[in-house]
Each structure stands twice: as C-alpha cells, then as structure tokens.
Amino acid sequence: MASEFDFIIVGGGTAGSVLAARLTENSDVQVLVVEAGEDLTADPRIKVPTMWPQLQATDADWKLKTVPQKALGNREILIPQGRLLGGSGALNGMVFAPPAQEELEAWADLGNPGWDWDGVSKYLKKTYTLTSGAKTEGDGVLQLNIPDEETKWPQVWRDTFAGLGFPAGNEPFSGQIHGVVSYPDAVHPVTKTRSFSGNAYLAPARSRPNLTVWAGVSVDRVLFEQTPDSAIATGVQYTKDAKMQTVTARKEVLLCAGTFYSPKILELSGIGDAERLQKLGIDVVVDNPYVGENLQNHPLCSITFEVGGDDDEAEGFETIDAIARQDPTALGAAMEAYKTEQRGPFSQTNFNVTAHIPFPGIATDDGKQDLDQILEKHTGTTTTNVPGSKTTREYATAHQSLIRSVLNSPTGASGYYTHFPGWAYFGPTVLHHRRDAEVLARHVRFLESSLAAAPPLAGRLKHRRQEVAAPSGWPRGFSGHLDEARRFVRETAIGAMHVTGTCSMMPREKGGVVDPRLRVYGTRNLRVVDASIMPFTTRANTMATVYGIAEKAADMIRAGL
C-alpha cells in the first residue's frame, strides 16, 4: 500500500465519491479514498429500488441509535447511516429532493458568502441528468427519473390537497418549494436500478491510475504538525487488519465521514472542546466547543389507514402491502415485471409525490394565535414529556395506505457519543425541543382529521388501522383531540436519516466549525465536506444538497492547485 498521496479523502460516501471523481480529473493529482465499509455496488439490495430497507441494520449500516429519548417515552431511535462505498446514498429511499432557495439564502445570511441559491444551485444542476417521460434535462452523471404513475394514488393526493387549498407547487428544482411536489427518484430511467455516488461517480473513476480506494479501512484520527498560527494536517492514522498505520497527505485531508463520524474523528484528532478532550486524555490541537453540536434531524410520524372500495373499484388503487409482508405470489409477480419490463413496484421508490404545507390553520386568526402561543411558551425550553408506553406494531392482512408527517424545520440539539459492542449511541436528537413536539402533533392531527377526511382521498380510505398505527388500547382516532395527537407523537415518532449540523459552516464566534471554504477553524489544510457542515437543515432529505456541497467543494479545492 502506498504511503503518500496529495489528497486523502476520509469516507467514500456521497460527498467523498464526488470529490474523488472530480479531483482525479487532474492526472497530476494523487488521491486516496479511505472507507470503513465495503464495496457492495453490485449487491441487488442496493440496485433494486424497493429493496433499499434490507441493508439497514446490517454490516452496511453503522447501526446508530440514540440514547433513550425523554420526549419519546424513553425509546431508543435507530438512525441508519451508510457504512459502505457510496454511503447513505446506497441504502436510503432514493428520493432526490433539492433544497429551497430561502434555505440556502439563510446559510449565506449567517456569514457564508457564496453559499446562497445562486452559489449552490448551479453545482446541484451539475450533478444530474433528469428524465421525465420523453424529456431529458441536464448532463450530469447521476441519473434521476420521474417514474410513470402506475396507480391512481398520486392524482388522488394532488386533488385532495387542492381541495384543501394547497394546489400543486412549483417543480422541485425551482427553489420555490410549496404545496404538492413530485420529486424524482435517483433511479436509472432505462435499467431502473439505483443511481448513487458509488456507481455514478466513483466506479467510472476507479480505472484512473491516480485514484486509490481502500475499502474496509477505518481512520482513527488526523495527524498534525503544529505551527505558531495554525495546525497543518500531515496525514491520517488508520486501522487495517487490526494494525494501526499512517499515510501522508502532501496537500489536504478531506473529512467526508458524515454527520456523526466527521466530528468524532475531529475530536479524536484533538479538535473540539478542550475541557472534554483533556478529560479523555486527548492532546488539544484546536479548542472549539462547537464540534459535534447543533445536531439536527427530521422527526416524523406515520398514520396507517385501511384502503376502501370494492373489487370493481380496486384497479389503480393497488398498494404494496403484500410485498411488505413478503407474500410469495406478490413478490414473484413484482420481480417478473421488474426483470422483463422494468416496471412495477420494484422499479421505483413509491415515495415521489409529497406535499409541503405550513403550520395547520396558519391562514386563520385561531391558527396564528395557536402558533404564537407555542413560540412564546416553548422558546428556549426543552421537553418535559413523561415516559409513555411502547408502540406495538404488526403486519395487517388488509390493503393499507400510510400517510407520513415530517417536521421540516426542527430545532437543533447537542450531540454526543457512547460506544457499546456493535452499536454507537448518540443523542438527544428527536423532538428534544418541546416546540417541535407541539408543532408535529398539530400536523399529525391535521392528517387524520382534515386530510384523510377530505375528498377524494376520504372515499378510498376505510379507517385508521389501530393495530398497526397505534399502541393497543388506543381509541380508533384522535377525534380532533390535541392531547391524543401529542401522545401519538410521543409514542410513535422516529427520526429520519437526514442528520446534519455537527460541523457547522458559520463564523466561529457563532458556533462554527468550518469556514465558507469548508476549512476547519484553526487548521490550514483540513476540510469537512458532508452533511455535517449544514448550519440549518433543509426541508426534505439531504442527499441532493450533499451532492451540491461536494461539487462546490471540488471546485474550491481545484482552484487552489
């Protein structure tokens, strides 16, 4: 194994793979990618879109869970994160959801020049080629596809929201995201296989003689040479076959280890809260108490309904329940349709049509007053929820429709880590702030009392499925009662995979870890390039935004060569 490279990329996930491909376009640059996980690019669980949950909680997943969450009845919440080449983009739900313009403008306003809509959206567009029917847009290597609608559910969804005053919003790449939006899948439009950084960026670049990829190798820490005014990253220490070794970086070390492991590596390298590091016996290189802080994630709740309609009306209203139950007949038919015609439930994510709506009732005086009271009562406070009973879940034999509420703008929380055999714990992260719980409860109540009761959706649903959606002994529905909605949130809410913020890009005095060029404060040549640099999370999943961050970072780095 070579012992010296120009750039060392720590983490071969979404951002790391993009950087590796872009930097090695310059044949004079030698690049090393070090990835703790393995190369599973050919694994059918990655390639076939609907099989994406099957890699979670395996060795391809970091198997992260929170400490017991007081806001959630002391439940521990699993947060899947990719531990393989391609990272979380290899095991997520593949929905490509670009950020909104106002979100990026907020990044810039915080003190990050060049990170506004104009400064980031052009890099996002550089990433993809989008196919929608016969129309193709862009020439990026990542393949996106807006799938054909094979059921009537998407149109029912649009019509129902329109009837409630939420018409179809703008197209998802406009930056103006509101109302009903159809997001593309990161799925190849012809082969109907997952398109992600591992096969779109990294795989084609691996034939280049100036790119080296080490899979199954864990980086322990970054090595530094101290100068009077800054620390210079000279390489990394890594573990291979239970042996600790080092490799040298001539130019830069690029941390792309993700929201949990980039700050962990920084702290193990001596960058973090000095008091904490000294207690752990770690020599302090840079004192920055904000490393690992500002952890953000999207909390979500799901309500399940039994689908109505008689057999004559069922055509076009099929669900994927039988596949979720591993029914042999349904699985066989779906796989045959996928293999022979590249269609059916295995060919897409089934998550494309969504809706971005404001606080329920915000257009009314009562709604405005309700929101004002939440903000006044819960600003700057943490949760006081008491533990509740555990959720019981089981598969039902009826056809079901699941409606999910995701809180787009959660309040950040501190992050910390505890390691046990086989699992890593962190927290708090889900509904840590009481305000988030109050807002999510109102959205959940809206889903049941307003959305599911509105035509034409109401005509396709029978009732809530108690045995799937709620703990035993609950009433069939909330009946508009906010207390029951709060309890439902406390006992069923989980966290998404959309974790951000632990190495935030902002001025150091405001809580920043990296500057607008993604350099770690106090260092000369160490950068962080992944979702951890987002000072505020985006309103949907973070995959698209990470691609834009990585493309922009690649240009910044190449400009300095």
From TrEMBL:
Q: Name one GO molecular function term.
A: oxidoreductase activity, acting on CH-OH group of donors
Is Glycoprotein given among the entry's keywords?
Answer: no
Signal peptide limits: none
Q: Which Gene3D superfamilies match?
A: FAD/NAD(P)-binding domain, Glucose Oxidase, domain 3
Q: Which cofactor does this sequence's record say it needs?
A: FAD
Enumerate the PROSITE patterns for this protein: GMC_OXRED_1, GMC_OXRED_2
Q: Which family does it belong to?
A: Belongs to the GMC oxidoreductase family.
Protein name stated in the entry: L-sorbose 1-dehydrogenase
